[in-house]
Design brief:
about 160 residues; mainly alpha; Protein Binding, DinI Protein, Chain A; 2 domains; 5 helices; 3 strands
């Protein structure tokens, strides 16, 4: 009988200790921890810089296509195989240079815009006393949406 009472007291004591530790852990959470969410796709789609970048890229692609058409026309006119080979090499190098310039320019501008967006998100979150900002498409529930406030900075 004493063993059963002792076992019951040990189990009860373990339960009380475990519950107390859990209560302490929960009570120490910071109630001032604030989370914001931002819809990055919406900010990017409304950015005038992104629209300008796309227009610039389209213009450069058209220039490249014009070079390709010019090369095809010149190569088609030429009958001498040696000159055809020389023209192909010339235009291949020219088109590769244009493509490299296009890619480099696009990547540099896109990186600059991305950094500007990140900086705007951080500044707005700090000014509104948020501790964390997450992309809206990864959050299932919670967080204050600050997309509009950041979007006004980016435009």
């Amino acid at each position: 009988m004493k063993k059963k009472i002792l076992a019951a007291l040990v189990v009860t004591g373990a339960f009380v200790a475990g519950y107390s530790i859990n209560s302490i852990a929960v009570s120490n959470t910071n109630p001032e921890f604030r989370v914001a969410v931002v819809d990055i796709q919406k900010i990017v789609s409304s950015s005038s810089e992104i629209r300008a970048l796309k227009l610039d890229q389209d213009k450069q692609v058209k220039n490249m296509q014009a070079t390709i058409e010019k090369a095809r026309a010149e190569i088609a006119k030429e009958k001498d195989p040696a000159k055809v080979s020389a023209l192909e090499e010339k235009y291949r190098n020219e088109i590769n240079k244009q493509k490299l310039a296009l890619d480099t320019s696009y990547n540099n501008k896109l990186t600059a815009i991305d950094n500007k967006i990140k900086t705007a998100v951080v500044e707005k979150a700090r000014s509104m006393n948020y501790n964390m900002v997450l992309p809206k498409n990864t959050v299932l529930f919670g967080g204050d949406d600050i997309t509009e406030q950041v979007s006004t900075i980016i435009k």
